[in-house]
Known about the structure:
Mean pLDDT: 86
Number of strands: 8
Radius of gyration: 22 Å
Low-confidence stretches: 1-21, 105-116
Oligomer: single chain
Shape: globular
Amino acid sequence: MKHYIIISICLFSCTTTFSQEPKQVAGDRDSRRAALLKRFPESDTNKDGVLSARELAAHVKKQQNSPEMQARLKRMLQRFPEADENKDGKLSGEELRKYRAGNQNKGTPRSRRNNAPKVVATVPDVAYGDHPLQRFDLWPVPDTKKPTPLVLFIHGGGFRGGDKSLLKRGLVETCHKAGVAVAAMNYRLTDTGPYPMQMHDAARGLQTIRHRAKEWNIDPERVVCFGGSAGAGISLWLAFHDDLADPDSDDPIARQSTRVLAAGAMNGQPTYDIHTFRKWFGVPDLAMGPAMPAFYHIEGESDINKPVVKALMQDASPITHLSQDDRVSVYMTYSRPDSKVTRDTESAIWVHHVLLGLKLKAAMDAQGLECTVTAPGMPAEKSPYDSLEDFLITKAKEAQTAE
């Protein structure tokens, strides 16, 4: 949704200028188009390296009409029926933009990383460690007698940033209506330490929730997790990695399981191995993304062939831990369509590329495991789920239904 709104604003400013426009305005317009072209190289349909007004308009229309965007607009209409300005029962991207603009200055509390109103937790900042970032927010289902399933959100940010407040405002309401609790977790970032700290923090947070499940009326056996980018990678890592529970530990939290029933991924990575990225994209000199050196505590390219670094890269990659005894289901959604990656492609594009989801799907298909992948121009064929949220809730409640 954020991408669509940004493009719409740019489209309006780009297409309402004339031949007499000031040079500064034209320069600003061209710079905005150049920036959009870097983010969405597939929009340059004639491959001349310039994003024309017609190409921009076509790209906006394609984004607006994508199945994923339509599903989002449908959900937003349910939450904000007053945004349907023409009262036709459908919410357009332009109607949503106007509605958000009209509410921008009404004093609603904001998160520090997005423009959505911050979701105030019922049970905020529960500590699962001594570090200030070892915290999670929790929204138990109110007024319920039986223990409920749980959807756990793990934020993204390249392992260098992000915050649990990035949880979408409507998810808690949607899950509660379905009888499912919600949690959102922070974890230590790479300015504190490298892998596996981030994954182990998420595991410890999950173990803490399970240890205190009775307190919040949560069923510890019915937990699913999801996240965007780095949070997606952590979710997949938990899904496939061997259980970190230590049944012989004196610590009751450490005795809890770290496995989940299902994982959702938004622009997620099944690998964090630069060698694998280069192989999958067929680009042997693909440069590392800026987040990778700190994640592995290395200087850069000169260290990637060291045996200890290679072993870390393999261990950090969720796909490495996929095995025949796994029973997990995965739903992956990507913001951009399938496009060619070259050595000049920005890391922000290839590290969130739908090819990564397709590679994981092929590996899971070979194991007979359920994996759904969606992207613009690539709808989920024969998928029983309307959206990522529908997948998470369905999987969280499946075991309950079977009882």
